Amino acid sequence: MVSASENGLCNLQVRITEPDSPGQSHMPRRLTVDRIRRIKCDEAKPSCQKCVSTGRRCDGYESIRTPPVMGMPSAWDFISDDSTELDNFSFFQSVTTSTLAEFFDPGFWSDQLLRFAHHYPALWHGMTALACLHRDYVGQDVRFTAPGAREIRSRRFALKQYNKSIQALSELCSKPVLGLEDRIVVLATCAIFSSMCVLQSQQHQAYMHIRNGLKIISEWEIDYQEVTVCGDYVAASMLVLIFTRLDSQVIPYMFASDDATTWIDRQVVPLYAHATFLTLFDAYVSIEAIYNGVMRLVWKFNKRGASYRPIPLTEREAQLQLLQAWDQQLAIVLETLPAESRNSKAVDLLMVRRTLAGLFYHVDLTPGELAADLHFTDSAELVDRVARILGDVGNGHLQRTKAAYTLETGIVEPLFWVAVRCREPQVRRRALRLLRQYPRREGICDGIVAAGTVNKLIEIEETGCPRARGDPEKASPCNDGQWVCEKHRVSTWDFVLQSESEVAVTYRTVEDFALDRPGTKLLYSWW
């Protein structure tokens, strides 16, 4: 510290001359002395105690000014300064992330991808595009908007963001080597693209993005198996879950599609089907992989198709063993959880997916149309669980006015299966009511189209079957089967895309097949 002169007094103004170099001696201060108070300055910092002890402010030193703290600029600033982009990213963060995963998100959507978006423009622009489309989707009243007539007000902004995302994704994929984070971003962006297409009723384009994602996972399958031991296991599992579910949803459209030969001909990462899980999230990933394996067997079996062939017993047994092992492991996991977790909606969803996989296995892989009657109680239990997930109180007049969108929660498929396969009137009509009352889009599954398909199928069966009408004396005598006889049951409902926004459904009963009749064909529009 520069010494004050021996006559230095408090209440003085000081100008300090700093040395030019470390070796330079200090020059004395020039002092302006307050001659009123002749008290020697004790030179204590930040204030002379002889001053402050008397209640005065020490002017012996210049006040120490703390420089303003300059924080590191947010990565957000590096991504965008566009207010519309920021607004939609905020919507994605606060609304879309919670609806994409709902019950099972170990931080993938709600944390990890949000952080990645600040470093990957492809992800950022994809999220903002999906957010604005999602906002449009949930903002319109399904009661007053006919299917195919929904206005997409933000289409132009979404297209602009989509093009930016595609450009950034191309630049990312041109790198010589992609790291684990790069690959996570590529696949997550691919899933976002498929969701964008779905919300614009662009089914063909959605299929393209899903197929691309499945191919990428197949190419990286060895790496994803290694990730189960080290690296980002949660992200890898979530991406496998997303694309496995999307694959399972597309398969029913392949039964009568010309695109069937171009679809992925093998299950993606079957390793996940093995029951080695220790958490409910991992149990969900596992049951979706098992369900996908069963769906692929049903596709191969195609019991009413021209390419029908029996399934080897070894393949059937392998799927049954996976289901049984899953049941045993889930029981072990549930024992470790508190009672409130064992009775949660997450467990209900797990059991809905498990029941659906079992119903497909026991009914859709069995010749004939009567096997569903043997599993009536499973169908009723499945609908009960879905009602709990939806929070349904049994009032059919309280229709939800806004459609929901989710990527990973699957309840449209099980409700649809029960409504078309279970012929017990009360159970199937309750499933239909839930489809109508809670309109939702899950991946590529449109609950509104599903409800329309079910409604027509029930009409065909109940008007065509004297037993269902309670009028056995009419034409076309009935044969075996509860509630609806076998020959009047609708055996197939083939979906064929007619355009980006329309799908044709062809219904054929067992009798139609026997008499080589074309069946009934109707056209539906996506909502």
Structure description:
The chain is mainly alpha-helical and 527 residues long. Among the domains are: 1-65, no CATH class; 79-200, no CATH class; 473-525, no CATH class. Helix content is 52%, strand content 7%. It contains 20 helices and 8 strands. The strands form 3 sheets. The protein has a 3-stranded mixed β-sheet. The chain has a 3-stranded antiparallel β-sheet with strand order 6-7-8. It has a two-stranded antiparallel sheet with strand order 1-2. Helix 3 crosses helix 5 (121-138), helix 15 runs parallel beside helix 17 (425-437) and helix 17 runs antiparallel to helix 18 (447-464). It is globular. The N and C termini lie far apart (78 Å).
Task: Give keywords.
single chain; 527 residues; 3-stranded antiparallel beta sheet; disordered N terminus; transcription regulation; Zn(2)-C6 fungal-type domain-containing protein; zinc ion binding; Transcr_Regulatory_Proteins
Report the major sheet.
3 strands, mixed
| Unreliably modeled segments | 1-37, 64-78, 227-231
Strand order of the largest sheet: 3-4-5
Percent in helix: 40-55%
Structural class by helix and strand composition: mainly alpha
Query: Topology as H/E string?
Result: EEHHHHHHHHHHHHHHHEHHEEHHEEHE
Number of strands: 8
Report mean pLDDT, rounded to a whole number: 80
Strand content: 5-15%
Work out the helix count.
20
The radius of gyration computed from the alpha-carbon positions, rounded to a whole number of angstroms, is 33 Å
Anisotropy-based shape: globular
Distance between the termini: 78 Å
